[in-house]
Amino acid sequence: MLAFLENRLGLFSWLRELGGTARPPREASFLQGLGFATLCVLALVIVTGIGISFHYVPSADHAYDSIRVLERDVTGGALMRALHYQGTSVLVVLAFLDLCVWFFLGLYKRPREFAWIFGIVLFALIVGGAFTGYLLPWDQNAWFATKVRLGILASAPELGPRIRDILQGGSELGSMSLGRFFTLHTMVVPLLIGLVVVIRGRVMRRHGMSPVGLRVDESPTLQGPFPSRTTWSKAFLGILAVAACFVIADRWPAELEAIADPADSNYQPRPEWYFFGPFELLKFFKGGTEAIGAFWLPNALLVVLVLLPFFDRNPERRLRKRPICLIAGALFLVTIGTLTWRGSQDKPTHYKTPAHPLHATAEMRLGYDLTRKEGCFSCHAWNAPDGIAYGQEDKDAPPMEDIEYDPEDLSELLLEPPEEMPAYPHLSEAQRVAVGKYVESLRSKD
Ligand code: HEC
Asked: Atom 39 in ligand 1: which residue has the minimum CA distance?
């Protein structure tokens, strides 16, 4: 039977090849296991992504509610989404750290130039995955942040506006854009990532793991057969990274703001924390020079990194003997660290608006939309039963859960409000009563 499988499928030779023909060098560093840890988190993100997509509806009318139903009614749904969301943060960080390890330990040198280049491509694809996934929940932040990012993309010369229009699929971000982002996020990007991972794996196996601290012309001593010391460090880092995802997802669930309202011109989106640095950098380029910060600088860095193994002919891997790399790398890390820290100091100026009531009547939904549009939450906070505070507290305005008016009385009050509150004569009776119905539903039940 086994001989049959080997003969027909080449199963065992294939497994043997996968199991690593090249034995790692004794000089391998524990940090070289980071690549494997990155793959483990990538697998976690893909599995949770598939789980979410079973429940997700990629249309502007239903995307948001499908995420809420996933979080509320599906067993493990909220955890799944948090793992996908926070796992992506961990993935970006690990892929970045892995590139740093390759840079500082000189692993990109001859003959592993292409493994380094594919590593950069992989990092870019992971960021592309984060970018295309961000729009999918269709909440305020998703919509406005994607709008900003498409604006940045469009500032690239020549092709920029074209690419934006293709991604957007219309003059405004709508269902068409959502469909395109969904296809990119769930098919194109994962396919490319899989392809690059496989190609890179092959390239890596060809020359084996790089020895650390040796010159490129010195040959390494090899570790014992599988499982070697490196196998254990990979397993350790892989388990640690996946465990970290669970801890972070448990502590910081994925956020979901109110459903996207393109008419809300006050909303200021905030990027994920790992994009704080690049966005902070953009602030230095205003008024016609945006393309420098958004396009030329990042792409120049990319080209330099891709070409690095070809113009850095220094045979030394030890950092002490590579002063230019040491200084340039340290400067880069300090810069990106400072920019990220500065970006994190910007507090959002908008307040959080609660999500609309699920499975509500049309009147209730109208009441919600008006309450939101008329800015009631800009003075009346709402402390939801789950402990989240929405809106903005005005010390004279009672919070929503304490308002005891019934819908008809509230409708009257909106015409003749107390002194510190604006009047709403532009709303019809039916609209005012609808607001009353919605406000009534926020009342604390005890
Ligand atoms: C500019 C801030 C502001 C906005 C906007 C605002 N309110 Fe008020 N509202 C107040 C203040 C302040 C009071 C308390 C006045 C007092 O008690 O003298 C108040 C009182 C009320 C009360 C009476 C509460 C009580 O128990 O006495 C209701 C009901 C109410 N607001 C509903 C609304 C609704 C509904 C909206 C949106 C359509 C709204 N408010 C918008 C500031 C605001």
From this structure: 376
